[in-house]
Hints:
The chain is globular and about 55 Å long. It is built from 12 helices and 11 strands. The chain is 43% helix and 15% strand.
Amino acid sequence: MKYLMNGVDGHLGTAAADEMLTLVDPKDLIFCAYSLDAIKAENLNRWKDLGVTIREANYENYDQMVEAFTGADRMLLISTYALGETRRKQHRNAINAAKAAGVGYITYTSFNGAEIEEDTPLIASDHKDTEKAILESGLDYNFQRNMLYFDYPLMLFYPLAVTKLNCTWMSNMYDKKCAYVLRSDCGKVAAALLAGKGEKNRAYTITGPEMLSEAEFFAEVGKQTGFSISHSYCSTEELYEYWAGKGVPKTQQGDFSNSVFPPGICSDDIVGNNASILSGHFEKVTNAVEELTGRKATSVNDAVKDFYINMLPHK
């Protein structure tokens, strides 16, 4: 059995790749990235030394993917960072290439909300399209519907509030809650599903162990950093205007030259995810992390303490 993992150059893919090395013989693994230059040299060399096959597979290059995927029995399709039609085309390209290459199974890192039939939230609608494409392909599958990572508010939003926004934060989520999940936990789940530890042709909702509002999330972080964040609330339209005033473009194709966020973090992404939470659909907790990996999901408190405390501003 040969197992192929895409996106091993990214944070999620790296976590999944390293977990996969504990589950199967490295010689049965094929790791792919859109460019080998995008993989950290230390990872690339370490994986090669273990006997992993490394290939280039760009979601924009169908022929390259067919060649890279040939010989694999099971494949992990990690969602790209693009939004909208670009991401949908990339994913469908990869699915079609996998089928042409003889792959029989796909694990897809989807998103909570992709199962909503009508009025699907903006971000989840891309994932809904990819799930549909996998179903239409006739391949066996697992859909890994991840809850929002708490790595992003932890490493982007909280530091921004402390260092540039005078310990304030504007939101349109009010007291709605989300079972934020640690990205590395999602990586471990992806590896477990690819290795066959899940039930075939089933979707799993991947959450953290607790539901928190955004204010509660920041307060939990503040217990260890010493900074208290004051929340204000507004409508979705007003939040778009607020971030525009901070230089944040609406789309990923916009001008990021004056943005308080790094390129790629657009207001469609921020406000869209907030609107998803505002719908109430993210207020659920599952035991899928423990069911699939044998380890409990990481709490926000433990993640800050064990992984992030030295990266955060603290008193």
